[in-house]
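Lab notebook: predicted structure, single chain.

Context: the supervisor wants predicted structures on file for every construct in the current expression panel, including those that have not yet been purified. This is the next one on the list. No modifications to the sequence; it matches the entry in the shared construct table.
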Amino acid sequence: MTTLTSTTDTLTRDALAVLQPGFTGTTAPEWLLRRVGEGLSSVGLFGRNIETPEQLAALTAQLRAERDDVLVAIDEEGGDVTRLEVRHGSSFPGNLALGAVDDTELTRAVAHELGRRLAECGVNLNWAPSADVNSNPGNPVIGVRSFGADPHLVARHTAAYVEGLQAAGVAACTKHFPGHGDTAVDSHHALPRIDVDLETLHARELVPFRAAIAAGSKSVMSAHILLPALDPHRPATLSPQILTGLLREELGYQGLIVTDAVEMQAIASTYGIERGSVLAVAAGADALCVGGGLDDDSTVLRLRDALVAAVRSGELPEERLADAAARVRALASWTREARGAVREPGAAAQEGTAPGTARSTGIASDIGLVAARRAVKVTGEAAPLTSPAYVAAFTPVANIAVGDETPWGLAAELARLVPGTETDTYDGGSEAPAEAALRAAGERRIVAVVRDAHRHAWMSEALDALLAARPDTIVVEMGVPQAGPRGALHIATHGAARVCGQAAAEIITASA
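Prediction complete. Output recorded below exactly as produced.
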């Protein structure tokens, strides 16, 4: 092994290069621009940073004025997890809806249009798609973010999504390796454990990641999960056996490995973010996502200094940090080249995408609504709603990945089609939610909106009580439709994006 001798400046720049921090505000703060000038190669954007496409474009231009090839990353899955449209709801359905349609050309077109919109705003790295196989229907954090429970369905749609996104000049980040679908714990809060054997892992969790690698995914995001069959001691993000042994050596992946956010409790509460970051890079990670919760200069300096100190103490090989930084810079170079090529009419397919996918799709910009309409599954029948209704939204606590900033449901869309429609929200802490909804509704037709009713006993009980009193109630399930259809008319949207609500409202009023 070659021993590298670098100047302090080179070492510091490499330590900065592997960080993907966030910040507060809709313009870049002075400290962030200063760090970019010192070697920071990536910046992460969240809902708090985005107001309008025009504002976002100005923000990314501000960053590129400091460094032209800076990676501007975002967690934009579409569907329930949106940052681009955090205040209004996404114009694109999420993965479960696309998997329910099971048309890979549609998935590719949706991803391409989403990528086009991101690229227009100057975003060039998307922490998507989720390639998790949702094999555990009780999963509290993946759910509708997965294409489904069938590994091969998930694989073909993951590949199509990667191809579509990267054809628009935006690097994909396939997540959460080696698979977060079979968990009953949210890694934002604690460390999930997946007790499966290697045969199951290869036949289920790894199938979509193999497809993503074959499709040329420019980056892969690690999961904060413990997989004892491969490493009984450390979560995947910190495991050399998983990141280097499995992903690099066995699966042959040569792109960028990005960690899930290091401030998530699965890492932070056990190792601390500084030690966790050092262990992650030593294990094979190339970039450290941080900033969903920690978003200041002191965090960047803490992690930079921890990496530098680990190299100087011999805990982290200098060549490992240098290799990680080089991979970050290589992806930054690809995005800059892709940005120029995609702007050229008739540009050839970009490196890392399937042949021919960079050509113009000719798909209208309302492809998200088209997809949402196709994803709806209707059971039962009811006369079209023509007079004002009452929408009872039974609302679970949102997980951190989804957040509680983004509106969901169909009340606004239904009120637009049937003026005078009203709504109220009920949660697990509400006293007798069904009775309260019945009183509020009066004689109006009731539309009950639920999200993962199978995971919330209070919600299912409220729905039973509501239906016992008012059998003509329309039920709209906007999560995973694991529970059986109930109600005079049952509509499964396979997600809670704004367009999913619009598609359901159109069916209820027969106005599609």
